[in-house]
Amino acid sequence: MSERQDADAVDRDTENPSAINNLTDSATNSSPDADEEDKEITSLSQDTYGLLLISNPNTIEFLSSLFVCFFQITLIVMITLDLLTSGGIGDPLFNPPSEVSYQVQVGQCMALIISVLTQSDIVEAIELLVYSPSILAEYTNVHPTQILIVNVMHFVVGCGGLFIVFLAVVQADELIDLFSNFAAMEFVSNIDEIFFQMANLSYFGSNLVKKTEDLKKIEIPSIHRGVLTKQIFLFLPAIVIFSLWIPVVLKTFAGQYLAPSYTVSIPDNYDKNDSYLSGIYNLTKCTEDKRFTYVRDKTVVKENGDSMKGVIAYCKKTQTWVLNYYITTHLGSEPTHICDQIDKNSIYDPCKNIVLRSPRTLKYTFEEFSPSQWSIKVPTGGFAPVPSFFNYMPNECYQDRDCSNLHGSGKDGNEFGGICIQKTNTCSCGNGRFGVLCEHPKPCLILHEENLDEESNGVISENDEIAKLVYDKSLPFYFNDRPVYIQSIVGNVYLTLYQGVRYIQYGIAGYELAGNEVTDDDIVTYFKTNTTQILKPSVLNPSNSTTESLLSEQTDAGSPAGLDWYVIVSDAGIVTKRKGGSFGIFMKAPVRYACPDCDIVGISCGSSGECVNNTCNCSNGYSGSLCQIWPDFSETHNDTTFMPTFTVTPSTNST
After folding, report:
1. Is the residue at 212 inside a domain?
2. What is the distance between the alpha carbons of residues 257 and 240, in angstroms, rounded to a whole number?
3. How many CB atoms lie within 10 A of CB 381?
4. Which of 195, 224, 253 is the last residue of a domain?
5. Ranked by mean pLDDT, which of 29-43, 122-136, 351-365, 534-548 comes out on top?
6. How many Å apart are CA 238 and CA 227, to the nearest integer?
7. Is residue 121 one of the residues assigned to a domain?
8. Would you place residue 428 in the very low, low, confident or very high pLDDT band (cuts 50, 70, 90)?
9. What is the three-class DSSP state of 314?
10. Contact 508/540 with Cβ under 8 angstroms?
11. Residue 655 lies in a domain
């Protein structure tokens, strides 16, 4: 033994007598073959876990190293929770991008392979797990239980670091973001090594410097057994990670991370036909430039008999998402028929008949943009900023709170408007509520008509004419996901229904449906189809010069109650065969609907009334079904005419 080796032996004997005695005895009693084998040695990991293996639990070195380990574990847990909830409140815990490019998916695979092979905490823990804790205890002079706990903790922390790398990588939708996240997560896994290096450089005191030097000197004879055990421990995390990643890729290819449908509201500021494309757009298997398309659930029948189908797709030529339509006279209503026509018959071009378009993008989903960033086609050519009414909302839930959080204000103190069915991610509404997300309270059974004062807009009186809710057997009938009301005025029958962005009061002739007596079944049979007609005088009201008696303001409300109403004073803007146009020129109508049921959420009797058994008891001289008629109006006015005489300056249809 050389002088240098003698000196090292003396030092090691001073610091760890039992360890050096064991090594000396082993060298004395071994055979030549054993001496040859002992030349292969291994060292403890030079990090905080190595310090925990050689430090007694009651020392400052052990406690300092333990603090760093807990700091690393806490950071891993916090990052994991942040990545799992990165989509926001109400989103699923695991929320990868809806669609990514093939390059990103290849990059994900490469990053995961690299992370498994370079995860030092896992490899170092595996190297020591094949040793018996009692054997390692002879070289570290600590209890075997401590060695076992530290090694298991080291392995678990390595797996935790690998998991956050997986989450960061699989949720990236750009290649540069992917490897940036990968590098950041790798840094978290190296915190224990960084602490060891700083301790060795005397940043944390002389005791830790001495302990790090002791750790460097400890050498353990290598053993060649346990190769299979090492392979199992190494490849098990890799198998788990890839078994999680592969389903993500397959679901991405199938579009399963996309919203199943969207509710779209298209304003009628420029073209009346555009607004009829409002409604629910369902996800299909049809793709344009590797991007999934959404198709309107109903077909709009134009005046010439052609069918118009709304589609949200990607236009590769302009690199924009578009909402457009295509015309066909033989369109099937099922999504499979739609894909057949789009893909096989080549009747659809995503770059033609554009109504709305997004900014230029290479993204694989249009939900990356807010509705306000889109632009709308104008009749004069080109595109203009979209009116504020344009909107689209995903129709999916992940928790009950997504089905309209009522904050305990619902009937019987219910907290939510419905229950989220996890299998389909759809809401099942309760207490009569309706809407894809149960966002609307139960429809009012009847509506009263209010006459308004032209100057103050206050309620003068309520008409005796009552609009009644239309039923489909025992349930309310919904057209375009809104309730339908029927009303008889001076011997004529009127329907109030939702056109897509406005409620419209249509006058209908009884013989057009089922004779002079119009029943709910007649209305349901006529309107309960997979098509929506752009109604015109020759279809519903041939005796009237205009089909629409009254039109509400643009709205997404679940009831016509409380809305402002208008009449058309000029048909100059009504859609004809010429390009462009809209409903026409409007004039404010001094009428309004009111729901007299004060038990419905959101309806109040005001400060001069009290709701008793669904009815308002008024005081202080107020009257009306909701105590909304002022005392001076109820005393000085007695106007119950359906359409009072009024003079209002006409305005355009920008409402």
Report:
1. yes
2. 21
3. 8
4. 253
5. 351-365
6. 17
7. yes
8. very high
9. strand
10. yes
11. no
Rounded CA-CA distance 655/117 in Å is 63
Q: How many domains does the chain have?
A: 4
The b-or-e profile of 79-93 (16+ CB within 10 A means b, else e) is beeebeeeeeeeeee
Contact 616, 440 (CB under 8 A): no
Share of the chain above pLDDT 90, in %: 22
CA distance 144 to 133: 5
Confidence of residue 233 (pLDDT cuts 50, 70, 90): confident
Alpha-carbon distance 362 to 359, whole Å? 10
Structural domain boundaries, residue 314:
261-394
Do 22 and 134 meet the contact criterion of CB atoms below 8 Å apart?
no
Q: Which residues contact 293 (CB under 8 A, 6 or more apart)?
A: 284, 286, 287, 311, 312, 313, 314, 342, 350
Tokens of 73: 């574990």
Q: What average pLDDT score do residues 382-401 get?
A: 89
Write the single-letter amino acid at 649. Answer: T
Q: Give a yes or no: residue 595 inside a domain.
A: yes
- Kindly state the average pLDDT of the residues 463-490: 87
In single-letter form, the type of residue at position 548 comes to: E
DSSP H/E element including 590: none
Query: Do residues 133 and 194 both lie within one domain?
Result: yes
Closest by CA to 131, choosing from 190, 195, 260, 45, is 45
DSSP string, 206-226: HHHHHHHHHHHH-EEE-----
CB half-sphere exposure, 23, CA atoms < 13 A: 23
Q: What percent of the chain has pLDDT over 70?
A: 76
Same domain, 544 and 583: yes
Which amino acid is present at 67? Answer: F
Contact 477, 497 (CB under 8 A): no
